[in-house]
């Protein structure tokens, strides 16, 4: 039970990153409050210390402990300087406002210097805001300095001693999360096998969600591996095994869908919510074959979830040997061809799971290996020996001047903040800074006007509900200081735990927490919280106006730019994989695949304004979803081609075939044509169509099958990739040429 609960938590919060962030922030605040209370600080400085501890904790983004310590040490003098200037300029309204705008510009511009520049800018801005919130004065600076120093010291103690998070530890938890999500996906596939036709919709939604979550965790591991202290060859080995397991599991889901439908399932079915389902029925063949599939999927899940310490023993070896035996044709049970494909998929997934276990947990017990298992181990060993570090990717030229994203954002935030200050002071001469804070926040991690609009809407919605909660809690808590602080800690934890999931929910907890802080400062009233709604709406509006009028980046332009990047990365992966499968030199296909996934993730985030439920343009929303789903399908097949190409030196059934270059030429040309149309809609480009790739390669002129030199899997991936690329033409408005006879 404990293991199952741990796996469920690990799957819902990969690497426990949200849990650690929440605990670390709450711990720093609680410790700072305890120390300040012991030295007799008043409530105002308790609030200042709590907010400073929160900022000092969440602002640090570096992965390694050394850089974290340096940034935290530099953050304290930045914080002291910020509150000093805020106190000195508090009585000089115009000069103070001008300085605040300059500070905001510098804080945003500092993002160009990486995580440290971002953290120091964030600390400078937030501590200036804290000084305004608590009404800092020059005479009160010594006590405020003490509160900040205690807060930063407590943040360091919690970060490095009480709730440490080393890169190796985070990576280990991410590995556990990957296993848990892989097991959840296999459970969803087992449900698909057994589901009644009336329940297919819900089961398929679980399958889509499981596939997407597995991919999300794989990307997180790929990113964390770059920051880890593992040697380069071990890093690449883990990356390769993670990719193999992900691809094998997704392919197994597609084979199950195909077996339950009257025709081969489209990969798009797994990537597009609401996609039309193929006609589903019962599993073809005998009940005995279905029972065997049920048994073997459960066995595969057992291989995934069993902890390394329990992964020894004859029973587990028997399960592993049986599943790996399905990689040999003579061991396949009597069943329909579609069901036999599922058994093959189970065998390939079992091989990927074994490779993943070796890469993550080290050498395994081989005493009970069957011949099929021994052969699989030999293949894995040969692949491991062939993995090379590869060459570092060349740096891409960055835009300069006002075209640089950090410069543009800094100018936009400065203009928006100026508007927010003017408008905010018209609403309230004391609490105008709420509008500035909202304007600042809506620009964080956004890159287009549409993204800023959606983020502003979510913040306003969360603020409205948070005000209601704040009014209720203020009446309940009253003057119970430590009860209020305890609730503040609960809300801080909830804020950080829910931040990656829902910005609206995070804004709700922030506003409810502020209602309690106002109560502690004896400045609470319902009108104050209602004023916060007005200031929040004003700040969001100022941010949108600045983004729309000052160096604007339209959502269409942003998505077109990212779409072009995705198409370029897709070409790199496809050409590199096919060139290697055709006998060309080995390339760094793993890094290319990761670049493709990252570009696709950026595009998916940028299309959120287009796919948001409140968007009035329904047809445009559906088109955006369809295009992203098609690109995810293309990426899946390109990654599969890359994984197959990397098997070329070691896999006995895969041999180089120069004819593949000609087979993929049309697909690559079509990707280029779509990219050219996206860059310039007036360009004279068109997508070519013609005979399917499989029909071109299946037989030679004498009618002899060519599958002896390349696997059918390569053909299927090439065919599906070509179909998906052609399918992109219609929603993107690219002309399609008639097939040449």
Order of helices and strands: HHHHHHHHHHHHHHHHHHHHHHHHHHHHH
**Tally of helical segments:** 29
End-to-end distance: 64 Å
Structural class based on helices, strands and sheet pairing: mainly alpha
Q: Into which percentage range does the β-strand content fall?
A: under 5%
Helix content: over 70%
**Unreliable segments (pLDDT under 50, ≥5 consecutive)?**
388-396
How would you sum up the global shape?
A: globular
Gyration radius (Cα, Å) is: 29 Å
Average pLDDT reading: 82
Number of strands: 0
Sheet of most strands: none
Organism: Streptomyces griseoviridis
Domain Integral membrane bound transporter: 420-545
Protein name: Membrane protein
GO cellular component, one term: plasma membrane
List the helices and strands and how they pair.
Elements lengths: L1 H11 L4 H22 L4 H16 L6 H24 L4 H17 L4 H21 L6 H22 L4 H28 L5 H27 L5 H29 L7 H4 L15 H19 L8 H12 L11 H25 L9 H16 L18 H23 L5 H10 L6 H29 L3 H18 L4 H18 L5 H24 L5 H27 L7 H18 L1 H4 L6 H29 L12 H21 L13 H5 L14 H16 L1 H4 L9
Helix pairs in contact: 1-8, 2-3, 2-7, 2-19, 3-6, 3-7, 4-6, 4-7, 5-6, 5-16, 8-9, 8-10, 8-12, 9-10, 10-14, 10-25, 12-13, 12-14, 13-14, 13-15, 16-17, 16-21, 17-21, 18-20, 18-21, 19-20, 22-23, 22-25, 22-26, 23-25, 25-28, 26-28
Structural notes for this entry:
The protein has 29 helices and no strands. The longest helix has 29 residues. The protein is globular, with a radius of gyration of 29 Å. The protein is mainly alpha-helical and 741 residues long. Helix 8 packs antiparallel against helix 9 and helix 22 packs parallel to helix 25.
């Amino acid at each position: 039970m404990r293991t199952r609960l741990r796996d469920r938590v690990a799957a819902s919060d990969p690497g426990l990153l949200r849990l650690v962030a929440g605990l670390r922030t709450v711990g720093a605040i609680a410790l700072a409050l305890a120390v300040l209370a012991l030295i007799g600080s008043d409530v105002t400085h308790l609030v200042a210390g709590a907010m400073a501890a929160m900022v000092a904790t969440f602002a640090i983004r570096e992965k390694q402990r050394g850089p974290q310590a340096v940034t935290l040490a530099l953050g304290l003098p930045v914080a002291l300087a910020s509150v000093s200037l805020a106190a000195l300029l508090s009585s000089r309204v115009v000069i103070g406002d001008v300085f605040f705008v300059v500070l905001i510009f510098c804080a945003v511009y500092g993002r160009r210097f990486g995580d440290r520049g971002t953290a120091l800018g964030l600390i400078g801005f937030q501590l200036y805001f804290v000084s305004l919130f608590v009404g800092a004065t020059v005479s009160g600076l010594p006590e405020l300095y003490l509160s900040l120093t205690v807060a930063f010291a407590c943040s360091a103690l919690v970060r490095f001693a009480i709730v440490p998070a080393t890169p190796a530890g985070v990576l280990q938890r991410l590995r556990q999360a990957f296993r848990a999500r892989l097991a959840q996906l296999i459970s969803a596939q087992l449900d698909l096998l057994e589901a009644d036709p009336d329940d297919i919709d819900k089961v398929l939604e679980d399958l889509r969600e499981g596939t997407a979550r597995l991919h999300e965790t794989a990307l997180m591991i790929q990113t964390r591996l770059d920051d880890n202290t593992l040697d380069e060859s071990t890093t690449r080995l883990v990356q390769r095994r993670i990719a193999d397991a992900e691809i094998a599991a997704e392919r197994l889901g597609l084979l199950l869908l195909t077996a339950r439908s009257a025709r081969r399932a489209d990969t798009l079915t797994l990537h597009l919510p609401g996609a039309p389902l193929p006609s589903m029925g019962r599993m073809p063949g005998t009940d005995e074959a279905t029972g065997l599939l049920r048994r073997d999927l459960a066995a595969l899940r057992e291989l995934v979830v069993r902890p390394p310490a329990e992964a020894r023993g004859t029973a587990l070896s028997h399960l592993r040997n049986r599943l790996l035996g399905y990689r040999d044709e003579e061991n396949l049970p009597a069943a329909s061809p579609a069901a036999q494909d599922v058994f093959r998929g189970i065998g390939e997934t079992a091989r990927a799971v074994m490779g993943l276990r070796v890469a993550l947990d080290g050498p395994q017990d081989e005493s009970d290996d069957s011949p099929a298992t021994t052969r699989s181990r030999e293949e894995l060993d040969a692949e491991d020996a062939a993995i090379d570090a590869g060459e570092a990717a060349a740096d891409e030229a960055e835009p300069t001047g006002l075209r640089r994203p950090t410069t543009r954002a800094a100018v936009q935030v400065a203009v928006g903040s100026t508007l927010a200050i003017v408008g905010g002071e018209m609403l309230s001469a004391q609490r105008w800074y709420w509008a500035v804070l909202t304007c600042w926040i809506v620009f964080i991690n956004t890159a287009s006007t549409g993204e800023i609009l959606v983020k502003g809407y979510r913040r306003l919605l969360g603020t409205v509900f948070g005000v209601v909660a704040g009014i209720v809690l203020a009446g309940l808590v009253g003057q119970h200081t430590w009860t209020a602080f305890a609730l503040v800690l609960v809300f801080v934890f909830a804020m950080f735990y829910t931040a990656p999931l829902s910005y609206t929910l995070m804004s709700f907890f922030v506003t409810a927490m502020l209602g309690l802080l106002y109560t502690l400062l004896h400045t609470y009233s319902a009108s104050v919280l209602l004023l916060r709604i007005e200031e929040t709406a004003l700040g969001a509006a100022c941010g949108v106006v600045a983004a729309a009028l000052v160096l604007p980046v339209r959502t269409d332009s942003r998505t077109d730019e990212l779409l072009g990047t995705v198409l370029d990365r897709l070409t790199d992966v496809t050409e590199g994989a096919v060139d290697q499968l055709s006998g060309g030199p080995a390339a760094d296909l793993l890094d290319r695949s990761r670049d493709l996934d990252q570009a696709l993730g950026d595009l998916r985030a940028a299309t959120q304004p287009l796919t948001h439920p409140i968007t009035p343009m329904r047809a445009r929303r559906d088109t955006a979803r369809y295009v992203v789903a098609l690109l995810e399908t293309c990426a899946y097949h390109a990654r599969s081609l890359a994984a197959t190409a990397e098997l070329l030196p070691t896999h006995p059934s895969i041999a180089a075939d120069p004819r593949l270059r000609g087979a993929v030429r049309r697909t690559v040309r079509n990707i280029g044509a779509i990219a050219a149309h996206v860059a310039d809609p007036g360009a004279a480009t068109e997508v070519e169509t013609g005979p399917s790739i499989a029909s071109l390669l299946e037989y030679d002129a004498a009618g002899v099958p060519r599958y002896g030199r390349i696997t059918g899997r390569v053909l299927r991936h090439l065919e599906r990739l070509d179909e998906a690329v052609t399918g992109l033409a219609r929603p993107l408005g690219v002309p399609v040429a008639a097939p040449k006879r």
